[in-house]
Amino acid sequence: MVTYWQGLWAYRFYLFVYFLPIILLPLPILIPTKQAYCAYTIIIMALFWCVEALPLAVTALFPLILFPMMGIMDASEVCIEYFNDTNILFIGGLLVAIAVEHWNLHKRIALGVLLIIGVRPALLMLGFMMVTAFLSMWISNTATTAMMVPIAQAVLEQLHKAPTGKDVEEGSDNPTFELQEKSSQKEVTTVDNGQVHPVPPGPSEPRAQRTEEQLRFSQGMSLCVCYSASIGGIATLTGTTPNLVLQGQINSTRWSPGNVTQQPASLLQDLPDNGNVVNFASWFGFAFPAMIILLLFAWVWLQFLFLGFNFRKNFGMGEEARAQQQAAFRVIQTEHRQLGRMTFAEMAVTFLFVLLVLLWFTREPGFFLGWGNLAFANDKGVSVVSDGTVAIFISIIMFIVPSKIPGLTQNPGKPGKLKAPPALLNWKTVNEKMPWNIVFLLGGGFALAKGSEESRLSAWLGEKLTPLQSVSPPAIAFILCLLVATFTECTSNVATTTLFLPILASMAKAICLHPLYVMLPCTLAASLAFMLPVATPPNAIVFSFGGIKVSDMVRAGFLLNIMGVLVIMLAINTWSTPIFNLNTFPSWAFPNATHCMANATMPSP
């Protein structure tokens, strides 16, 4: 009997994949409508995503098969959703991030800031959080965490061990840095359910020799890195994937008037667009202040939880800690010195990165005419150049700019022959580091959203939620944020936003609420995954590094989740209102909907 149950458990994912579609077959058979067919597809994909019975990207390909076969959409229409403008923005942003990582520019930034901040315990924690949050605004949260955790552990080991004269004078090499460099050359992976996950390097010496106080400080430092990686990602449109899911669904959704099921197709094709309401500049104005507030609160909370309120000790005012701090500072100095002077490649990547950010901000800022409105506008004065266009433009430049000052160099493999230096970016590097699975996952989400529109399923769901009109908008947003923040602890944040946002958009239309009033906070809430190691890759990296129990992460993350929701509510009810005009019903969302447009303003919070 034991062997029988063990066999079932071993084959649980195969059995789940085989039997779930059969169990759900009565839904499309008994209700032969497009709404039921689309619901059948969404339920299967949602359960597969939650259980991870198949790789997330493979599940995301289901609409390519099911939607055409069920008559919901043509295959050509489904395929377009897998490579739309938002996916182009994602790819372009990642290409630039890969160049930053390839030339170690992110490590130079991290060590430079830490040299300025110093190594006093409270300031050291703040410094790591600031650097991690800043880097995760532009590059992958996972890559940022994988780089910063070994640096944090190396500094802590110098801070906790008894200093010698040589350590203080020169700074000793730390094995943790050596492990980090080796792991970048050859990644060790484990296979779980067909998915490959990177295993970060472990610490160089056992933690049993540490005192309880030192262990708690190490736990606090590890958690501050993974939490600030998740927090920093919400600040920019390309910082984390859920933000792009929101933009893609806002841009691709046809906001239909009134009772959608009764509208002719000709009317649906002539709806006004959303005026590019969610772009890089508007998102930054909304999310960056929220990120700063949440980051500062996380710093205070982790300091209280793991360091206590001994401010004199936390800020390194005692004489006894100065020697250890000096040794730890020397470690950072040594690593920064080993990077050498900035190369031409680093300077070129820095220039192109800054240029990209400036072009993003000034393309179509909204409060003044951007270069997109002036030089590349359509007949309505709207920029035809998107943020994705800019990202791809800068990425292509990186493929054609040499990594050294132009000139000919000797080919070491073939004496007497000359060769040109390599470009800033090459396809081999891109192919190794580009997360193609996320591209498919994004596309699958957009295909689901489009299928929900075409089948009128989203409109039907929205109409069933009309009783919520009697509830105040802040209460609705607060409850939904808590729901999404809870759901994202055990499910991919991309899958969470993909499943929730189309329903929220239809609900907002049905109850005459600005769609962004619920979609924006729920998108941010999908990044509040602080309680469990499986909630997000940064949490998993820190947990697998050792020294942290699940109970430690739950204890630290629970209050941070609650405070994150409260900060989001503050943002959506204050400074985001003028940015997105949340007090009025947008014409792009409710055209000809007289039951909504009768009241020009939303109910006051």
Structural summary, described in words:
By secondary structure, the chain is mainly α. About 65% of the residues lie in helices and about 0% in strands. The protein has 32 helices and four strands. It has helices at about 1-10, 10-25, 25-30, 35-50, 55-60, 60-70, 75-80, 85-100, 105-115, 120-135, 140-160, 165-170, 175-185, 210-235, 240-250, 265-270, 280-305, 310-315, 320-340, 345-365, 370-375, 385-400, 425-435, 435-455, 455-465, 475-485, 495-510, 515-525, 535-545, 550-575, 575-580, 595, and strands spanning about 190, 195-200, 410, 420. The strands form two sheets. It has a two-stranded antiparallel ribbon. Strands 3-4 form a two-stranded antiparallel ribbon. Helix 15 (about 240-250) packs antiparallel against helix 28 (about 515-525), helix 17 crosses helix 30 (about 550-575) and helix 25 crosses helix 27. It is globular and about 75 Å long. The protein starts with a helix and ends in an 8-residue tail after the last helix. The relative contact order is 0.13. Residues about 160-210 and about 255-270 have low confidence and may be disordered.
Low-confidence segments: 162-209, 256-272
Structural class: mainly alpha
Q: What percent of residues adopt helix (DSSP H or I)?
A: 55-70%
Largest sheet: 2 strands, antiparallel
**CA(first)-CA(last) distance:** 59 Å
Largest sheet, order of strands side by side?
A: 1-2
Strand content: under 5%
What is the overall silhouette? globular
Number of helices: 32
Q: Mean pLDDT, as a whole number? A: 78
Radius of gyration: 26 Å
Topology, number of strands = 4
Pfam family, one: Na_sulph_symp
GO molecular function, one term: succinate transmembrane transporter activity
GO biological process, one term: cellular response to lithium ion
Subcellular location: Membrane
